[in-house]
């Protein structure tokens, strides 16, 4: 292991555990274990490697059974596509963690080319769109990248993917 847990906080009701993990380069990232069914503003510091992503799962698994994985929070998962894809493939590999793809969710602000690629590379993985606001104007004020990934084209891709979804 190239990372280590330097802090662990549990909520008073035990439903949430937050880990502060120090990576080999000295950067710190947070992992959150949520034991319930519901689901930043610090700016980009670095992209995690596939190994760093998987090590968060190893740390979390030592504290609680992990049944669902959500890529979200600090940063845009689809801006780090290769590492996220490789981590998802490891998480869903029956010889490794063996999670069902439907138990893995990638949350995105709407990186359109990567949404299409995700649909091809990882069928069955859930996609969550973090729109942040009901209008493009408000969305742009809250999320700078929303100016690039606008609601209209995003909804068109969403509709197309819903039409192509098997069994839907």
From TrEMBL:
Cofactor list: [4Fe-4S] cluster
Any one biological process term the GO annotation gives: rRNA base methylation
Coiled-coil features, chain-numbered ranges: none
Span of the signal peptide: none
Keywords: 4Fe-4S, Iron, Iron-sulfur, Metal-binding, S-adenosyl-L-methionine
Residue ranges annotated for the Radical SAM core domain, each copy included: 13-168
Tagged with keyword DNA repair: no
Gene Ontology MF, one: metal ion binding
The protein, known as: Radical SAM core domain-containing protein
Annotated organism of origin: Haematococcus lacustris (Green alga)
């Amino acid at each position: 292991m190239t990372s280590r847990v330097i802090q662990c906080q549990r909520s008073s009701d035990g439903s949430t555990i937050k880990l502060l993990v120090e990576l080999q380069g000295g950067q710190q990232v947070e992992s959150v274990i949520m034991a319930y069914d519901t689901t930043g503003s610090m700016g980009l510091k670095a992209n995690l490697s596939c190994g760093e992503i998987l090590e968060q799962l190893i740390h979390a698994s030592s504290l609680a059974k992990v049944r669902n994985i959500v890529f979200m929070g600090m940063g845009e998962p689809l801006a780090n596509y290769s590492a996220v894809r490789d981590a998802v493939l490891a998480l869903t590999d029956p010889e490794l963690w063996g999670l069902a793809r439907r138990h893995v969710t990638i949350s995105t602000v709407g990186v359109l080319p990567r949404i299409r690629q995700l649909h091809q590379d990882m069928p069955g993985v859930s996609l969550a769109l973090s729109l942040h606001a009901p209008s493009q104007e408000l969305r742009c004020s809250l999320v700078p990248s929303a100016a690039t990934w606008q609601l209209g084209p995003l909804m068109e891709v969403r509709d197309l993917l819903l039409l192509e979804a098997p069994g839907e």
